[in-house]
Amino acid sequence: MADNRRWWALVVIALAQLMVVLDMTIVNIALPSAQVALHMSDGNRQWVITAYTLAFGGLLLLGGRIADLAGRKPAFMTGLLGFAAASALGGAAVNQGMLFGARALQGVFAALLAPAALSLLATTFTDPKERGKAFGIFGAIIGAGAAVGLLAGGFLTQYLDWRWCLYVNVPIALVAFAGAYVLLSGGGRHPDARLDVPGALLGSAGMLALVYGFSEAESRGWGDALVLTLLIGGVVLLGLFGIWQTRARVPLLPMTVVRDRQRVGAFLTVLLVTIGMFGVFLFLTYYMQRVLGYSPVKTGVAYLPITVGMVTGSTQVAARLLHRVPPRLLMVPGLLLAAGALALIAQVGVEPAYASHILPGMLMLGLGMGTAMMTSVSLATGGVAARDSGAASATFNTAQQVGGSIGTALLNTIAASVTTRYATAHAASIPNRALLEARAAVHGFNVATWWAMAALLLGALIAGVVVNADRAPAAQAAQERTPEPVDSAT
Fold it and tell me: Fewest Cβ atoms nearer than 10 Å: which of 127, 141, 226, 392?
């Protein structure tokens, strides 16, 4: 593939990844309108979000291995068409069941699309300098996708209709599909690839149980019998999955992927980062709309500093230094900067504090996260045999999804319990009910944000101790990479 062809291929891959990432947040702002239109109860409305993350997080390992089995280009293109069809179905939903089903289908095809996209990127860019630039762009998209989703959701909901938060995926997916057909190569299946059926069942069931359990913990509570059964069952199933993977002839998740110290450090770091980040996005949205009174569009615009920081950290800091300094010298400072940002954001009160706390906090958070995430992506996918790149990519995406589910459930549970205790303790001293509710909610948000900061600090500690490579393994990936079958269509 010629140089310019590779970079155009990056545009296609990045466009597809942006669609998958932003779809986790774009419907958040549209949810109140969709709830009214489709007559959802307060208890059922969470399934608009949960149906997507449940299918996505639970099926990622299977999707990654299917990409290795069938070929990454066919898997990528199938995922794009399926995602477009599911999005159109959701946009046309006439009742809540139809919308929930469409969101679950989006998750199924996202689980096929996301690992195929990341493994295509890893096998397309093997030169260290080019790889740094490519992963810088990709890392910025991963980090900024959530904020872009909130911005797009605000504009589409306020000026068009909530259904366009789903319809917008259709043209994006079709453009990416056409680009993939023309530009991407290396789509043939590997002759030694096999589908590990017992591993697929154990791994997918374990992940589904964990993601479902964490999703239900927010509304049911951590002591609920169903939540405990799901979480314990998920851990047991994943334990059995791990045991089976050491015995399977062609495992779903090759042990070489998780035995590498650098990759383990990257996976754990991403897990902890997303634990901290997803809950904070939700809290900031609530703070800006309910406390500061921002409209959906104004809320989306207010998130732009995170996007600016993410792009700067990924493309101007990490991409330029990745092949020059040890990865931990990018990951640790990036995570510490992001933790400092959360410490600043955690001090907001009911008075307007966007300019003094939220704005600088967002810039710091984006810069730190962009630097750390881009480096983690490169570590997670570098030095993997081509036949296993789908599995490595799926494991990275799984760490993101599980971290997001844990973070949302854990931080929301903490915030809700702290808010209730504060309101009870101060009911007599603050007779104004509206003021009491606002202060109680902000206090719960602050405490949960401190916990999110602790997750980032733990991630920085793990990155500093576990990740000890002198350089990101881009060159090693180029040397160990097995020859790719070339699709005759390209």
Answer: 226
